[in-house]
Amino acid sequence: MQRTFKGWHLTVLCLLLFICLAGCKQETPQAAMPSAYTVTDAQGTQVHMPAKPQRILTMSMSTDEVMLGLVEPERMAAVNAMLDDPASSNVVELGKKVETKIRYPSVEEIASLQPDLVIIPDWGDLSRVEALRDLGIPVVVCKGPRSLQEVKETVTLLAQAAGEPQRGELLLQKMDEKLAEITTKVQEIPKSERRSVVLISLMKGYGGAGCCFDEACQLAGVINGRAAAGIRNGEEMSKEKLVEINPDILFLPTYNNHGKFDINRFRNEYLHDQSLQNMKAIQQNNLLEPDEGYLYNCSQDFVFAVQEIAYRVYGDKFKLEPQQHLSALEN
């Protein structure tokens, strides 16, 4: 009787163990399954993400810079070809870590990279959006930021798209902290000592009121000559108007496309123009070359555009080293 009981008891234990193991086998794949989520992009489209993307592709330098503050370089399928050019980029070393570089890829070229998320700014070629979605590739359209607020909205959207909302919040916090530090110093500059600047850009309509450069000037305590003269972003400034503005300082372009573009020829159209020689900036040789990796930045590193402008105009009080980058990945 005792042996029968022991045998029955052992059978029950074995049966319970089998059930537990079977249950574990069923639970393991479920636990390992990635969590799906949905993102609403700048056009109001709901984009389904089956899991955190591991091969991300974005269609601009600024969105690359945002993503490289949110995810590891290994999660980027490719980045813009200019990202490793120190004349144009503030994330050169990060750019080098992503082997594949792109410029203006076609739908076929994008598909060949097998991305699991594509980010396209709304100023880009939006004809690719539906074509890529038809191929089953998640595409998120974001704003091409024209203000600090829109930069922050883009950071938040891209963080959500990447499945990293907490990292997005950390990045916004770091932006606010940096801007607060700059603002404290700017407030110490008397109004009477504020100086005016005109940006000479290869994009001849860039730099007026209503763009990131204009807001960066305001935050840096600098008078943007184009905006003060009533020129809106997108409107070209004539040389006659430049003479009328008569800024204290000219910001000159340095972009050279990895040495393929003759930037000096473009600059000389202004510097050697006899009609401009009586301007204060030229007479006093206040011809400055700000770091364009910061100056045209519409990522979280917009805060360094503010600091770079203040540094060039007001000096070492705002000293800024090259290749600064805000990241949520730093320890």
Spatial order of the strands forming the largest sheet: 9-8-10-11
Strand segment tally: 11
The helix fraction, in percent, is: 40-55%
How would a crystallographer describe the biggest sheet? 4 strands, parallel
Q: How many discrete domains?
A: 2
Give the name of the CATH architecture of the largest domain.
3-Layer(aba) Sandwich
Structural class estimated from helices and strands: alpha/beta
Radius of gyration: 27 Å
Q: Can you count the helices?
A: 14
Gap between N and C termini, in Å? 66 Å
Order of helices and strands: HEEEHEHEHEHEHHEHEHHEHHEHH
Tell me the CATH superfamily of the largest domain: Nitrogenase molybdenum iron protein domain
* Oligomeric composition of the shown chains: single chain
Strand content: 5-15%
Write the layout of secondary structure elements.
Layout: H1 2-32, E1 37-40, E2 46-49, E3 56-58, H2 61-67, E4 79-80, H3 92-96, E5 101-102, H4 107-112, E6 117-121, H5 127-134, E7 139-142, H6 148-161, H7 165-186, E8 196-199, H8 212-219, E9 223-224, H9 225-228, H10 239-245, E10 249-251, H11 263-271, H12 280-283, E11 287-288, H13 292-295, H14 302-314
Parallel strand pairs: 3-6, 4-5, 6-7, 8-9, 8-10, 10-11
Antiparallel strand pairs: 1-2
Helix pairs in contact: 6-7, 7-14, 8-14
